[in-house]
Amino acid sequence: MDDTRTSLDVKEYPDTEVQKNRTLTLEEWQEKWVERKITFHQEQGHQLLKKHLDTFLKGENELRVFFPLCGKAVEMKWFADRGHSVVGVEISELGIREFFTEQNLSYSEEPIKEIPGAKVFKSSSGNISLYCCNLFDLPRANIGKFDRIWDRGAFVAINPGDRKRYADIMLSLMRRGFHYLLSVFSYDPTKYAGPPFYVSDDEIEILFGSACNCQCLEKVDAFEERHKSWGVDYLIEKLYLLTEK
Predict the structure, then answer these.
(1) pLDDT score recorded for residue 175
(2) What is the pLDDT of residue 24?
(3) More confident residue, 19 or 163
(4) d(CA 128, CA 121)
(5) Is pLDDT of 93 > 50?
(6) 3-state SS string over the chain?
(7) Residue 32 — pLDDT band, cuts 50, 70, 90?
(8) Isomerase: present as a keyword of the record (predicted)?
């Protein structure tokens, strides 16, 4: 794995299996939105994405960009405003509606015939479509393939036991020449059960390395005062760029 030199020495925890049986249900994620336990939402957008945006987009126009577990990420409007087409998937209908309301975007909604009970919300401009359903059901909706994937708060949120299935879906959605930007966290998983769940360098290589070049663009100290309640004493965010081999 190509690893950009950095002064930040990330500690890799040797037992990557410690969280493997940890699970959250879809209902628990929906309750987080209802109870406003959404500290994962970043109102100003993601700073590392801003920093590496040119590397991610490569100056290309009219790209299809996928946001797995999108919540109400403000970056979706960033990309739409640049002329790109955005597709997201999110289990919380509340989160999706809040995105359109907070971004002052009019929208329509319609059922997804391939997924009973699911809906798709579309901006009136036509370049943002957000699917309200289980991510693992999404392939049934035939949403096509993507030039870019921005994965912040998705891979680290799914149950660790589902990562192989998740990675397979992401790989199936990528067009030739794709760029997949992935944000993960490193901390001592014996002290905090997650989410966000701990992800090792090796696991990224195992899940994506056969199809992707995996480059760590940057590692930053993401520890904040609120993380003390997790029982951890460090939290490192790592940003990876996955590209076609």
Answers:
(1) 96
(2) 76
(3) 163
(4) 8
(5) yes
(6) CEECCCCCCCCCCCCCCCCCCCCCCHHHHHHHHHCCCCCCCCCCCCHHHHHCHHHHHCCCCCCEEEECCCCCCCHHHHHHHCCCEEEEEECCHHHHHHHHHHCCCCEEEEECCCCCCCEEEEECCCCEEEEECCHHHHHHHCCCCEEEEEEECCCCCCCHHHHHHHHHHHHHCEEEEEEEEEEEEECCCCCCCCCCCECCHHHHHHHHCCCEEEEEEEEEECCCHHHHHHCCCCCEEEEEEEEEC
(7) confident
(8) no
Contact 169, 158 (CB under 8 A): no
Apex 97 CA angle, 94 and 100, nearest 5: 150
Residue 232: pLDDT above 80? Answer: yes
The pLDDT tens digits of the residues spanning 111-138 come to: 999 999 999 999 999 999 999 999 999 9
What lies within 8 Å, CB to CB, of 232 at 6+ separation is 187, 188, 191, 192, 223
pTM exceeding 0.85: yes
Asked, as a colleague might, if the bond just before 139 is cis with ω within 30 of 0, I would say: no
